[in-house]
What does this fold into?
Amino acid sequence: MINWWGVASNALWILGLALLLAAWSLAYYEAQRTGGRVRECFSRPGYGWALTVGIVLFCAGLAATEYRLWARVLWGMLGLAFLAERLFSRTQPSGSAVEGEGRASEG
It folds into this structure.
């Protein structure tokens, strides 16, 4: 008989890693195309959310495959910490065009 819980829980962390790899690959391609850096691509909201969802899926999959309660709690807390960091971070990209326009209009 197939252990469907095992299939579903292992599919979560595999899907998370696949999403991380796809986001990294797309960011690398875009950085090469535009002449920028991969880190600059990851500062954009779409890439940041892809990374966060990938990490949360990875943590959820590892929490689901774990048998020890304390390890499940730690994986869950790690996933929630990544999600909370994405939701509550208020960082703005440095050198934005809006700041540059404000200075140019003052002078």
Notes: Residues 95-103 have pLDDT under 50 and may be disordered. Residues 11-90 form one domain. The chain has one domain: 11-90.
